[in-house]
Amino acid sequence: MAHKLTPTGPDGMPTRQQVLDFLAQAEEPAGKRELVKAFGLKGTEKIALKALLKDMAEEGLIDGNRSAFHRMGGVPKVTVLRVMEIEDGQPLAIPDSWQPDDGAPPPRLRIIEPKGKARSREAALKVGDRVLARTEDAGRGLIAHPMKKLPTRTEQVLGVVEFDGAGKGWLAPVDKRVRNAVPISDLGGAANGQLVLAEPTGRSLRAGYKVTEVLGDPLAPRAFSLIAIHKHGIPFVFPEEALTEAAIAAKLPLSEEKREDLRALPIVAIDPSDARDHDDAIWAEPDGAGGFRAVVAIADVSFYVRPGSAVDREARKRGNSAYFPDRVVQMLPEVLSADVCSLKVGADRAAMACHLTIDSGGRIIAWRFTRALVRISEVLAYEEAQRRIDAGEAAANLVNLWAAWRLLARARDDRDPLALELPERRVVLDAQGKITEIALRERLDAHRVVEDFMIAANVAAAKALEAKVAPVVYRIHEPPSREKLVALKDYLATFGKSLALGQVVTPGLFNRMLKDVTDDAERALVMEAVLRSQTQAYYGPRNAGHFGLALGSYAHFTSPIRRYSDLLVHRALVDGWQLEQPRPAASGIPPTSGLSDRDRDDLTRICEAISMTERRAMEAERDTIDRYVAAWLSARVGEVFDTRVTGVQKFGLFATIIGLGGDGLVPISTLGAERFGYDEKAQVLVGEQTGETFAMGMMLKLRLAEANPLTGALKFEPVDLPEGSQRIEARGARNEGRYEPRPKPSGKYTSGARGRPGNIRHQGRRK
């Protein structure tokens, strides 16, 4: 340290590498004073050095405190980490700057996020986040405690490349919540109109974005689901290790003598006509005492997907399959999900069999679970099963299923579960991926038959595990909170209906409320309000009941191909009911198929993680449907539709096309010249001069003004206002949801059918 070093950085400062080289040669940690002396720094240079050292510490290049620093060796006690993946809800990270001399791979650290109130103040970490963290070796590996969340360096966004009149590139958003385009500083070879992934090049938007990946034509078949997959961060490529292991697992032999042989039963699978896999099948026959014996056979996924395996790790990360009109992002590799685990006609398949005894009143009075061998006699679409029943052409098995279901339906009516009409949109594509039809799915008795058998099996699984005092992954739907009930009470009071908060709130209370409303428009209003009052269902190891189904114990057991929750329930049944047959490990496949110690010890975290992935998939699926609907309607701009108001805000209305489900905004600026006041409690817009009222549930004829396939956003306008009518700004309203000029890009993808610049900010409610 005796001789003076010559700084080669800007403004007479040492470079990062010079600092690192100096610290590496020091025999002991050196402080700021030693660095100042070594490089001959004076005055403001000392202040600049302090800032440099702070930056290097945050970047993980050096470790230490204000008085002593040393070059990063291994993982510093305080360093910057980058989250690489989320496993069971726990972030896994690596050092953000990892440049070891020996080329060793970066270590993986488990980030321990704060719990309780401390965590509620911070958003959960996600892939790509950077944190300054304190690290420690916990014996079972490195862990990190976050101290501060840092700005994300490479936050990727989806957009479409557009050029303005001067030839400058802009990134037009594909998210309906984002208003404006941002400049592109590096096109990365992308052409006008292409869908791309891009990342910011600096802290300011003025620095622009650089294109990192070109995804192609945003309006091409399969593009809409691809946008949702990237936007929501859904893993869709299986690691090679998982694919290899799945191929090995698929060849595991089925030992007939160790499974109950149910191949003689004419068991049938009833599924959607476009189902990609079949993981459940049902059979029933009269028991001679007015009731039925039934079997609900579910694919034995736990036999093929063992705890701790590569396939299992990937399945946990995904949490569930995500279904789109043009593709499915499976939870399991295709060789398992669509082949050996899928219940196919005439093929021997491993199954978990739930044997049910149904009495003459439709109550499940007994159940047992076995590992079985089944051979499906037929796979039927819902529509075909219903047609055969209606035409009197059904075989004995279908007739028995319908008869047993009528008993189950009687018991369901006695429970009086929540009865809300929630129509589901169906997108039909041709062989080229183009839209041929968008309609609401018809609700048939065939759907109810399968649904009630699945509910019965799910209840039996929960109660069977409770009887063994085994871990249970419950499907929980809690009653509405008092805050939501108070809001519902206030809302109902605005049109003369009451809700007594002193009584016990049950699903039947809401059902009776709906039955008492005879007017269709008013009934729609009440149904919307009841729906908004409900809590979101989730998974958890502590039972809180299922309010909507009016059930005390409920678990998901019937879809292990597409839900990790069900796979966990299967594993718990394997353990609790001693269904495991000892078998040797096969080519590295773990030998056991019950719950692992890790599952048992950390079931709460797993449940939180799969609840999150479920919400992620639902949002992605809904976004994709919105884009398909907007694409379908883009050729019908200018047409008038019958709509129903589904939301009211101070900046306008949200309306849904009846029979189609396309949700769109009616900006307050289109409602004419009268000033409207917004009543938040009643959720209505009221004209101050005429008293004209816009409320949820109202039926309106609206003209489709714009349809944006890339964002899924629609815009409507009334049809009975004078041409050129101008609105006065509403009392209390802001410019939210208005169209703001943005004369930069061409407007091809962001302007809608009329070519007006700008992009609406959609704030519609989601069910």
Record keyword descriptors for this entry.
single chain; 767 residues; alpha+beta; OB fold (Dihydrolipoamide Acetyltransferase, E2P); five-stranded mixed beta barrel; five-stranded mixed β-barrel; 18 helices; disordered C terminus
User: What's the N-to-C terminus distance?
Assistant: 67 Å
Shape: globular
Query: How many strands?
Result: 33
Radius of gyration computed on alpha carbons: 30 Å
Provide a descriptive summary of the structure in words:
It is a single chain. This protein has 767 residues and is an alpha+beta fold. The chain is built from 18 helices and 33 strands. The strands form ten sheets. Strands 3-4-5-7-6 form a five-stranded mixed beta barrel. The protein is 28% helix and 25% strand. The C terminus is likely disordered. Strand 29 and strand 30 form a beta hairpin. It has six domains: 62 residues, Arc Repressor Mutant, subunit A; 73 residues, Nucleic acid-binding proteins (OB fold (Dihydrolipoamide Acetyltransferase, E2P)), CATH 2.40.50.140; 62 residues, OB fold (Dihydrolipoamide Acetyltransferase, E2P); 317 residues, no CATH class; 53 residues, no CATH class; 131 residues, Beta Barrel (OB fold (Dihydrolipoamide Acetyltransferase, E2P)). It is globular, with a radius of gyration of 30 Å.
Walk me through the topology.
Blueprint: H1 16-25, H2 32-39, H3 44-58, E1 62-64, E2 69-71, E3 78-87, E4 90-95, E5 109-111, H4 116-120, E6 130-137, E7 142-150, E8 157-163, E9 169-173, E10 182-186, E11 195-200, E12 209-216, H5 223-232, H6 240-249, E13 260-261, E14 268-271, E15 280-286, E16 292-299, H7 301-304, H8 310-318, E17 322-323, E18 328-329, H9 334-340, E19 348-358, E20 364-375, E21 378-381, H10 382-391, H11 396-415, E22 425-429, E23 435-440, H12 445-467, E24 474-476, H13 482-493, H14 507-515, H15 520-533, E25 538-540, H16 564-576, H17 597-601, H18 603-633, E26 640-649, E27 652-657, E28 663-667, E29 676-679, E30 684-687, E31 693-695, E32 699-708, E33 713-718
Parallel strand pairs: 5-7, 10-12, 13-20, 14-21
Antiparallel strand pairs: 1-2, 3-4, 3-6, 4-5, 6-7, 8-9, 8-11, 9-10, 11-12, 15-16, 16-19, 17-18, 19-20, 22-23, 24-25, 26-27, 26-32, 27-28, 29-30, 30-31, 32-33
Helix pairs in contact: 5-18, 6-8, 11-12, 12-16, 13-15, 14-15
